[in-house]
Design a protein that fits this description.
Helix content: 25-40%
Number of strands: 13
Structural class: alpha/beta
Strand order of the largest sheet: 10-9-8-11-12-13
Largest sheet: 6 strands, parallel
Shape: globular
Mean pLDDT: 90
């Protein structure tokens, strides 16, 4: 019986302070938004982390969370408010947070990495368990905090295979009319490369466009579909104009999961251009739909992306290498077993496992 406390990007549908029911795969879950945020992730004068801390403190003083038995945190900062709380406290880290030392990261703590590391060192020692979706983070934290090394472990991202699955019996019957309408027509001969993610510096859509432009020189029938939104959308639109790619790239915006799955099933390949990652769920979702992946060498992608079998990992994080990976995936796609291998690769990362 789970309650998620967080931020809402749509205050009309999910207003601050009102608990709503969440659809889940069995069990009960609720969402309580305590603060609003911009849907594109645009920065405000007061950082979201600070606003969330304040809102969470107010919620604790009001309705409170006394009925909760276990506390899960997906950032370390809220632990400050519960530092004297005796309940079990789990922390899930979705990055190797050494990334705060990267001046090109999106994380605001990059402006004060020493302060973040001091806070993290103080707060992680309070945790009952620390789960990391990157093995490098597990290794680093165990070395840095030997007194709690037994509490720190790797946990993978998982994929909802009820939504993300390849074509199969009954799939068309599940699709609503509205869902089918959301998939616009493209040139009949086009081969689709799909990207799903926020348009921000972490996901690096500018690298994606540069690589796509190079790939089209050898595969002129390739069409790129970009699903997602973010603060770099104006930069992406300018880049499309300057590279004259407008006719070959579709900016779809944010979509619900079942519509993303529709796009993936129509795709020849999925492309990830990230500068850094944990274990990206978008990669698992593509593979679960039977779609091979061309990716930069980030996070835990090598757990599931195996060269020549389920995709290609770019040799370097540059347009030429990523374009080469894309073209090799298109060549590998000729294998009749390609889709089956992709689906098999994510079998260990289902909710049941």
């Amino acid at each position: 019986d789970y309650t998620l406390v967080g931020a809402t990007s749509d205050e009309a549908k999910r207003p601050v302070g009102r608990t709503i029911e969440l659809p889940t795969m069995g069990g009960t879950a609720r969402f309580l938004p305590v603060v609003g945020m911009d849907g594109r992730g645009a920065r405000q004068r007061l950082p979201l982390t600070v606003r969330f801390q304040w809102a969470l403190w107010r919620a604790m003083r009001g309705a409170g969370f006394s009925d909760l038995d276990i506390l899960d945190f997906h950032r370390v900062e809220p632990l400050l408010l519960f530092r004297n709380d005796a309940r079990s406290k789990n922390v899930v880290l979705h990055q190797d947070m050494s990334v705060v030392r990267d001046p090109n990261a999106d994380i605001m703590w990059r402006h004060a990495p020493a302060a973040y590391e001091h806070l993290e060192r103080r707060l992680l020692r309070q945790a009952t368990r620390v789960f990391c979706v990157r093995q490098s983070a597990v290794d680093r934290y165990r070395s840095a905090y030997p007194e709690i090394r037994d509490r720190i472990q790797f946990i993978p991202t998982w994929v909802d295979t009820q939504v993300f699955r390849p074509d199969g019996p009954g799939l068309e019957a599940d699709a609503s009319v509205a869902q089918r309408r959301s998939v616009p027509s493209l040139p009949a001969a086009a081969r689709i490369a799909t990207f799903v993610g926020r348009l921000d510096r972490q996901k690096d859509p500018i690298l994606l466009l540069a690589a796509f432009e190079r790939a089209r020189r050898s595969a002129p029938d390739l069409h790129l579909v970009i699903i997602g939104d973010g603060v770099l959308r104006p930069d992406v639109e300018r880049e499309l104009s300057s590279r004259a790619l407008g006719a070959h790239v579709s900016l779809i915006g944010a979509l619900p999961a079942h519509e993303i799955a529709d796009w993936l099933r129509r795709s020849e390949l999925f492309v990830l251009s990230s500068a850094y990652e944990g274990m990206p769920i978008a990669v698992l979702e593509a593979l679960a739909c039977g779609v091979p992946v061309a990716t930069t060498d980030v996070g835990e992608v090598r757990r599931v992306v195996r060269d020549g079998l389920t995709g290609r990992v770019a040799a370097n994080r540059d347009p030429e290498s990523l374009a080469s990976a894309m073209l090799k995936v298109l060549e590998d796609r000729a294998s009749p077993a390609s889709s089956e291998r992709c689906v098999e690769s994510v079998a260990p990362y289902t909710p049941q496992k």
